[in-house]
Fold:
Amino acid sequence: MAEKTLLATTFLTVLVVAPYWVMDPINLPKMALVGCLSFLSVGLILPLLSQTLFRARRVLFLIIALWVLDLFLIHLFSGRGFELSLYGISGRNTGVLTYLAFALILFSSSVVSDETFLGKFQKMFMILGLTLTSYGLIQHLGYEPFPYISAYENSVIGTFGNPNFQSAFLGIVGSFLFVTLLDGRLGKGWRIFSVSLLFFVVAGIRLTNSWQGFFNLAAGVGVAIVLILYKLNQKRIANLMLMLGLILFTLVALAMLNLGPLSTVIAKSTLVARRVYWEAASNILVQNPIFGVGLDGFGDWFRRGRTVTAAEVNGNLIADSAHSVPLDIASGGGFPLLLLYLALIGLTLFSIIKVTRDSEKNSYLFISLSAAWISYQAQSFISINQIGIGVIGWILMGLIIGYAYPTIRSFNGQGRTSKSDSKSTNKSSIKLYVPGLISLSIGALIYLPPYVAASKFYEGLKTSDARVINSNAYLTPLDLRRMMVAADILERNKFFKESIEITKAANKAFPDSFDTWGLLAQLTLATDSDKLQSQKEQLRLDPNLKP
Structure:
């Protein structure tokens, strides 16, 4: 049951959207789903843990425990508002609870990871790739079934809301498929399917008109080739390829920072913007080294983190993410959380090396997971942590680390039972479901409230009733975007008193929102005192703002 839950968590989190029920049809439902299912998976797995298995993964479990503890401390001491800290900002939802869910998925996947489960994951991931590639083609042809209003010129957004994310996802799938073609243990039908799907995926990346997919596909394939060469005992060629790969990686990394011989080749406008975001995130980290500014807090601090030069030259650049997962984690959680994240990356790399040296455990299936994870990492260093892609990265990390060590099946005789004890096994299975149901209930209580409130607010908008809209703006947990939408609607419909009351409540609940303070000064009933306070607060939030 735990294995099926993990497979469902990956599959459904990537695919779930809610275009008819909430204003944010992409990220909010993904957060609610991944949170509930991550708690369920842990509840199902905890009763299976043995002392021996725990010791085999003690380093990983220690890092996860410290990660969860640090998330709790960040929530308490970063100065981030309660709701924003827990659930993140609308349109991202990568707050404390999302990173907690990722950690639980990492824990669960590391426990069940073995050759049997990896085979199931392999087929599920291929089907997932086919589903998203097909959906992207449908979008490209103009047959989008959902009423999305996209801010992007390209309509191929998949279930991620952004063509860059669709491109990156397909790059990860392509890296996985490249190695799968060599997996002789797959049946002939699956291998033909893999070949066809790989071409389909590459075409799908092209349809997004985004370079990210080709970037992380190249990274994943490059690492795959090196690992395959090691598996074939071609160590000299593998070492040479690895050295060339590291040199190329260094040159590309320098070019992205506008340094080195490739800087003129890789000189896209999107990279110019990213360099501004990365610089601001680094400054925010230095200013808030211990607890950061709270997860998903980059947007509120961006204006305070950017340099004077960046404000003068690129004054119109505004972002709610550092466009780099490590830098988002660093600016949001400080050096301790960044070090824990790097420790997880380091442990994953160590596990890849460990398995590569073990000829009995090393397989093309494991190499495909490693290639896909490297592909994810390449994308994560230059892009935003979208929940649908993030869940893939974290479950791959758990599978890789867990595969390097003994699993539950190793200690339980491959999980098989004789007929004589089948009745007792059935009884124990029922007992296993109780912790799962309890943990699922806890997860639902924690993760569903923002989705329920958002759904109720969306239904209220459809009524066009000012009283309902006004009342629903205060639904808990409070949401900044919801309150601003309500205030704007009421203001435009001449409910001036209600509009200014909501705006002032929003400013009290979310004092670091630059846009909400700006809205206050524009309202009909705003007094001179309100406008003066608005200007003062905006100057606090943007020291480079000219009064």
Q: What stands out?
A: The chain has a mean pLDDT of 89. The domain at 452-541 is CATH 1.25.40.10 (Serine Threonine Protein Phosphatase 5, Tetratricopeptide repeat). The chain has two domains: 2-421, 452-541. The longest helix spans residues 325-356.
